[in-house]
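Appendix B. Chain record.
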Amino acid sequence: MSAAAVERRHDRALIAEADRIMERLPGCRVEIIGGQILASPLRDGPHGQVLTELMRSFFSADLHDVDSRVLQGIALWLPTEPEDYAIPDLSLVDADFEDHLIENNCYDPVCFRMVLEVTSRNYRTDLRTKVNAYAEAKVPVYVIVDRRHQRLHVLTEPAGSEYANHRVHAPGETVALPDSLGAKVTVDVEQIIRAGQN
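Structure tokens predicted for this chain:
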């Protein structure tokens, strides 16, 4: 059991409210970040196409194998507030991630190698709020596919509530993701951005 699990309170009012929202709005992604409940709209088809294209890159690099798993919608506990958790669109986790279950179907951030978000109408959450949350959780790599501004962000080296290294890439670039993922993964920014257009 991780230290995060020991420190958690047993009063779960926010989690109970988040669960009620999910029951009323099936398909809506509900997270608690900074002690605030965030509800994301249903994802559109192009959002799913981006995830599929990216997953193909990770599978081609054999990252869904003995050492790691590529998963959609797996939740991680955040150290920011007692009930905080986030649900990235896509995650690269250690193969033994199930040994790191904390509670509420959420996993300790220690088993996450990378999280990835594809922006929707609530793009500010991915570009601001989640940057701080994932950095605080010490997730080594945070990738954002910013469909609104047609950019790919790669954030590395979490330090406090920020990432020390934040690189922004435009269509026409081919980006090599950090070797810390466990294999060579390159992303064609134009292909990914095109997949995400309505």
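Further analysis of this model is presented in Appendix C.
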